[in-house]
Specification:
35 strands, five-stranded parallel beta sheet, elongated, 328 residues, Pectate Lyase C-like, 3 helices
C-alpha cells in the first residue's frame, strides 16, 4: 500500500477512535434523571440515587454537572443521603420546600477539597436539611459558598436542622445574598463559626439562628477567628447584616458574639450591622459582645452598628460588652 494511502487509513482510524471516546464520555455524562438541566426543564431529583448520581458526576466530571448553568429541582423528600469527600452539586437548585436527610462525612483525599451538601451555589431556595454533617476539612451543612456575580447569587428560605461539625449551618462563605434562612442545628468547630455563614462579605438579611454554637479554639491575632450566632467573621466588602435574630447560645474563647464574632478590617466598603436582636446566652474569655465581639482594629473603624438590641446574658473575663466587646 502506498505511503499516502496508509496515512489516510491511519487518520481515519484515529478519527473513529476519537469519535467513540467523545461519544462515550458524553453519553456517560448525561444523567438518567428526568429533565434537561435547563431553567424551563430542570433535572428532577426523586430519589437518593438520583441525588448521588449527580453528586458523583459533579465530583468526577466537574465540567458537566458542576457547571453553574445547570438547574435542579427536588421533587420529594430524600432519606438518607450519605457520601464521603465530595465537591457538592453546584448551579441553580430549587428545593421545592422538600427535605433532604443527610449523613455526610468528610475525608480529605489528595486533590479533593470537600465542602458541603451543595457546592458553590448560584441560586438556591426552599430547601430543608436534616441529619448529621461531619466536616473535618469542610464548610457547612447546606452550601460551601455563595459567590458574587451580577446579578448577585443567593440563598433564600432554607432551613438547616442538621447537627454540624464544621463552620456554618447555611453557607461556609457568602459574598452574595442570604435571606430568610434559619439554622436550628447544633454547630461545633475550631473557629470562624456562624449559625448562618462562617465568613460574610455580602449581605445577610432576615435570618434566624436557634442552634447552639461552640468554638473549641481561638487565635487572638487571626483575622478569621470569630464565632457568632449569625456570622463568624465579617470580611472585606460586606454590605449589610440586618433584621437578624440569634436565640441560640454561643460559646467560645475569644471574638464571640450573638450576631457577629469579628469584624475584620473593611477598607473597601462600609459595613452596616443594623436592626438585629440577640437573646441567646453568650460566653467566652475575651472580646465578648451581645451583638459584635470585636469591631474593627487599629487600621479600620469597623462596622456601623445601629438599632441593635441585646437581651441575652453575656459572660466573659476581658473586653465584655452588652453590644460590642471591643472597638479600636
Amino acid at each position: 500500500m502506498p505511503c499516502d494511502e496508509r496515512r489516510r487509513v491511519f487518520m481515519k482510524i484515529i478519527f473513529v477512535f476519537l469519535f467513540i471516546i467523545i461519544f462515550t464520555v458524553l453519553s456517560l455524562a448525561q444523567p438518567s434523571l428526568p429533565g434537561a438541566g435547563t431553567a424551563d426543564s430542570p433535572y428532577e431529583m426523586w430519589t437518593k440515587e438520583h441525588w448521588e448520581e449527580i453528586a458523583d458526576s459533579a465530583n468526577v466530571q466537574g465540567l458537566i454537572h458542576s457547571c453553574t448553568r445547570s438547574h435542579f429541582r427536588l421533587m420529594q423528600n430524600i432519606d438518607t443521603v450519605t457520601y464521603r469527600g465530595w465537591q457538592g452539586i453546584m448551579g441553580y437548585f430549587y428545593g421545592n420546600g422538600k427535605k433532604i436527610t443527610v449523613h455526610l462525612m468528610c475525608e480529605m483525599f489528595p486533590g479533593n477539597q470537600s465542602t458541603a451538601l451543595l457546592g458553590g451555589i448560584t441560586y438556591l431556595d426552599s430547601l430543608i436539611v436534616d441529619g448529621y454533617v461531619n466536616y473535618i476539612c469542610g464548610q457547612a451543612g447546606i452550601a460551601s459558598s455563595v459567590s458574587y456575580t451580577s446579578p448577585l447569587n443567593s440563598i433564600s428560605h432554607c432551613i438547616n436542622n442538621a447537627t454540624i461539625m464544621g463552620r456554618a449551618g447555611i453557607a461556609g462563605g457568602n459574598s452574595g445574598i442570604i435571606s430568610h434562612c434559619i439554622n436550628n442545628g447544633k454547630i461545633s468547630g475550631v473557629d470562624r463559626i456562624g449559625g448562618i455563614a462562617a465568613e460574610n462579605s455580602g449581605e445577610i438579611i432576615s435570618c434566624i439562628n436557634t442552634g447552639k454554637i461552640t468554638a473549641s479554639s481561638y487565635n487572638e491575632n487571626s483575622i478569621f477567628s470569630g464565632t457568632g450566632g449569625i456570622v463568624g467573621t465579617v470580611a472585606n466588602g460586606c454590605q449589610t447584616i440586618s433584621n437578624c435574630v440569634n436565640l441560640g447560645s454561643v460559646e467560645g474563647q475569644g471574638h464571640v458574639a450573638g450576631i457577629v464574632g469579628l469584624v475584620r478590617d473593611t477598607p473597601t466598603s462600609i459595613t452596616s450591622i443594623t436592626n438585629n436582636l440577640n437573646s441567646g446566652y453568650i460566653k467566652g474569655i475575651s472580646v465578648i459582645g451581645g451583638i459584635v465581639g470585636r469591631n474593627g482594629n487599629s487600621l479600620s473603624p469597623g462596622a456601623i452598628i445601629s438599632n441593635c438590641l441585646n437581651t441575652g446574658v453575656i459572660e466573659g473575663e476581658e473586653d465584655v460588652g452588652a453590644i460590642v466587646g471591643k472597638e479600636p
